Amino acid sequence: MVNAEHGGHGSAVDTRPADDRTGTVRVGLWLVAAILAIRQMAHVLRLPPGERLTDLETWTGANGVNGVLHMKGSLYDQDHFTGTPFAGFVLKPLTHSAEEALGVAWTFSTLLLVAVLGAVVARALPGPVPRRSALLAAPVAISLLMVSLPVRNTLTTGQTSIIPVLLVLLGCFVVRGERGSGALIGVGAALQPTVLLFVPLLWLTGRRRAAVSTTATFAAATALTWALMPHDSWTYWVHHVAGAGLGARPDGLANQSLHGALLRFGLEGPLEIAVFLVLAAAVVVLGLRRAVRYAHDGQLLLAVALTGCAAVAVSPTAWQHQLLWVLLAMVGRVGTKARDRLVWPALVVLVMTLPGAVLLPNMGLLYPVRDNVPLLTALLAACVVPFLPRASEHFRAPVPTTYARSAPARWARVPLLPFWRRVLSRPNLLLELLVIRVGYSAYSHIRLEATAGRETAEAHGRTVVSIERALHIDIEHWANHTIQHAKWLLSFFNFYYETFHFIIPLTILGVLYVRRPADYRWARSALGFATLLGLLGFWFFPLAPPRLMPGMGFIDTVHGPQDLANPDYGAMTQVTNQYAAMPSLHFGWSLWCGVVIVVVAPKLWMKALGLLHPLFTVCAIITTANHWVLDALGGAAVVGAGFALVYVLAGPRGVQRPGLPAPRAATWGGSAMPAGRRGSGSGASK
């Protein structure tokens, strides 16, 4: 069978280099997974007592005493224990362990469970899966799990939420007998009651013995703890309605369930309960119908993930460490085109690894979405996203992307990178928005952290002043004081400085995306490279702008007077790095706008108008004392480097569409002009 799949015995020699490369990549991926595991363990164990394994310490108590599991009364007297009575019964033996040993053993065991979970997920991927992909799937799955918010939260708090997920996957994909698989899932339900939602999935997919075994195991475990711990069982199942209301506030952002979202929207009392029950019923019906359909289609892992997403949504409380089901939903394939295939997994990975504030801007209109991003992703997975069936012709082979032919006008000694090919089609909008938003959040975070202190920044400022005086370009003080006599012009530059820094670049990107997608990719990449290079400047050369240089007499026209005797002067200090002056991305981004407009605008007056933006910007940053002249030169340098990098990596902007004849060399006065130097928009701009 192996020979048949890979072309017979004669193909073994031909595929050996590819197999060697796959083996090397596999070793590298396993090394990444191991490094992530070691880093997570070290991070947890380095935390001071009281900040690490907080839930576990609450259960067992410091030095094995005074924990919730030690109490003679109810486990739920103080609302610190959120598990089922069966979970409390299982965890009781941990109270006899030493605190330090228990912390190390618990963290190591959790990481081991994550590794097993990743291996099971890789084994359960819906086929057909190429052999190389199957070999690389396990370390990739483990790495994604390690960096996900649910696993990181589980490791920090010392929770048990990985165990029910692992038990369900073992029962569905590893254990062969239906009774044994049902028993494992039943134990998972005894630990986390929403796992009972897998009973109808098992029943409707023909695994009725497993469904019965799951129900019987759950009932037996619950009855056992009810007999041994009647007061706790009554408190959990009746007084708190299967744990609802235990732990943190149910309307807090940590509760990513429909119940929590409705409470955050302001619904309370019987109305909230009624709306919740109606929505929960709809989610269960839709989610299970879709899960059953994909299970019959042979995508059992996707069916399990969708059922888990529905369980997350309908649970009274779904804390962050209980959201692993959402991450598993990324195995579904969405989109018939290759450019769309990465959108869903990228969205899931970003939602499960980054907080909502990074994914969406800090705008009041977006708060309902930002505060419920994991819940909305779970609902989309369970009820909305059109995952492809295996019978679809695009399940294995999506519609390929159209690539441009390489243009000849380029440095021949610099080879094009194999993974960077010029694409003519419009990129997926959602993926672009995610990349831009996450990229800007990362930029803002690095910019805020890239500071070496006030003394260093001011010393660099004096160095810049000396260089400018030697070059006779130290015009900042003159411009800053001269503008004070023209109040209307001062108001204009203040407004321009604060307003157009983001609006114009985003507008240009939007127009290019709609009208000229090939130029959009070229321009967006250049802007991204320029911004990355700018971050390097902020990190290695923190620089105080003129308005923050003591003793030089500059007037801060935008932010108002600053108390330069105070190391933490100015309200802006708390929200941005005020020493990120070199290079000036204010001017750099405006210059990028001007270059792009000059290159792509069809009319001369448009090109001339585009040059006004960098002109006004450089006047604004200097007259308002926010940048030095050398900062503007630095901004121009990184923008030029950004365009140069795009040229080196992807070739010139002018490209030829595949299938069209190569343009003939134009002649002028009997001499030929190289084809690559002709009009740059032949195919890229249409």
List keywords for this structure.
686 residues, mainly alpha, two-stranded antiparallel ribbon, 28 helices, globular, disordered N terminus
Mean pLDDT: 82
Estimate percent helicity: 55-70%
Percent in strands: under 5%
Question: What gyration radius follows from the Cα positions, in whole Å?
Answer: 30 Å
Distance between the termini: 48 Å
Structural class: mainly alpha
Strand order of the largest sheet: 1-2
Q: List low-confidence stretches.
A: 1-15, 569-575, 662-686
The helix tally amounts to: 28
Specify the biggest β-sheet: 2 strands, antiparallel
Shape: globular
Total number of strands: 2
H/E element order: HHHHHHHHHHHHHHHHHHHHHHHHHHHHEE
What does this structure look like?
This protein is an all-alpha fold. The chain has helices spanning 2-5, 12-46, 54-60, 85-91, 99-123, 131-147, 149-157, 162-173, 178-191, 198-204, 208-228, 230-239, 258-264, 269-296, 300-314, 324-328, 343-353, 356-359, 367-370, 373-384, 429-449, 454-471, 476-482, 487-515, 517-540, 585-600, 604-623, 629-650, and strands at 666-668, 671-673. It is 60% helix and 1% strand. It has a two-stranded antiparallel sheet. The longest helix is centred in the first third of the chain and has 35 residues, at 12-46.
Short description:
With 686 residues, this protein is mainly alpha-helical. The chain is 60% helix and 1% strand.
